[in-house]
Amino acid sequence: MTATHARPRFHAAALACLTAFANCTEPIATVNDLAAIVSGSDAKSVASHRTTDSEDRVDQIEAVTDGNTCASCAQADAAGAAPGKDTAITADCSKEIQPDARAIPSEMVMIPAGKFLMGCVPGDDGCESSESPQHEVYLEAFFIDVFEVTYAAYKSCVEVGACGMPAGKGNHCNWHAQGKWHHPVNCVEWFQAHQYCKWAHPQGRLPTEAEWEKAARGGLVGAKFPWGNLAPTCSPCAQNSAVWDDGSAACTLDGTRPVGTAGPNGYGLYDMAGNVREVVNDWFDAGFYAKSPNYGPTGPPVTNLRVWRGGDYQADSAKQLRASQRTVVFAAAALPNQGFRCARSAQ
Question: What's the total number of domains in the chain?
Answer without folding.
Answer: 1
